[in-house]
Amino acid sequence: MTEPILQVRDLSVYYNKKKALNNVSMDFHPNEITALIGPSGSGKSTLLRAINRMSDLNPEVTLTGAISYNGHNIYSPRTDTVELRKEIGMVFQQPNPFPMSIYENVVYGLRIKGIKDKAILDQAVEESLRGASIWDEVKDRLHDSAVGLSGGQQQRVCVARVLATSPKIILLDEPTSALDPISAGKIEDTLYGLKDKYTMLLVTRSMQQASRISDKTGFFLGGDLIEFGETKQMFLNPKHKETEDYITGKFG
Ligand SMILES: Nc1ncnc2c1ncn2[C@@H]1O[C@H](COP(=O)(O)OP(=O)(O)O)[C@@H](O)[C@H]1O
Ligand SMILES: [Mg+2]
């Protein structure tokens, strides 16, 4: 068994007094896809935002517990959150390309780092767009606006933008739920294809998606992690009644 790349220990998250996540502990191993499932409001997005410290941006949020990335406490005062968010990238439900060209979207993070060498940028664009399975569709119009692409293409450009910053972990918050089924399938295949290189945490409402591509699944309910384990095991033989009810569509 490999060492976990990410460990969440006894994590509780509050919005003011309201507890949104209750004493959650999870380990994530390299090159695993973990699906996070559960009804709306169960704390899935709150967990993702704690992991890349996006929750710092909300002054109402307080946390207790610990999160470590490669053995380092990400809440240490020495953590550079800009660097952290490159190592732990995020893709959102609504595709959010910047209003600029496809090319500039992908190299955005590299430009901020001060990289100017055209050969390096060109190479990063091609590699990232290939990684996001969209190179062939856009290679002849890299300088067109990303906003003019279809929703599914925009989402793959957003995946490419994250890949260009060389993350180790990718957090995906319902990345396909705003897309039509064909575009959703392309994203799903893309994510599966990235498994060899990245560790992914995927919030999804689709039980089919979770069972098709994830290695592990965590089921959340009311801020509690009810059940966490191998996806196959959980879908075939859930240990808790609530898990069974949720995955068979009895609520949610
Ligand atoms: N910015 C916020 N301010 C106050 N409460 C919030 C905020 N975001 C989420 N919550 C609350 O925290 C709980 C968990 O929400 P969330 O993490 O968004 O759940 P999920 O992603 O599973 O739908 C919910 O009760 C939600 O209302
Ligand atoms: Mg959410």
From TrEMBL:
One of its GO terms (molecular function) is ATP binding. Coiled coil: none annotated. Gene3D superfamilies: P-loop containing nucleotide triphosphate hydrolases. Residues 6-247 form the ABC transporter domain. It comes from the Bacteria. SMART domains: AAA. SUPFAM superfamilies: P-loop containing nucleoside triphosphate hydrolases. Pfam families: ABC_tran. Keywords: ATP-binding, Nucleotide-binding, Phosphate transport, Transport. The keyword Disulfide bond does not apply. PANTHER family: ABC TRANSPORTER I FAMILY MEMBER 17. This is Phosphate transport system ATP-binding protein. It comes from Streptococcus saliviloxodontae.
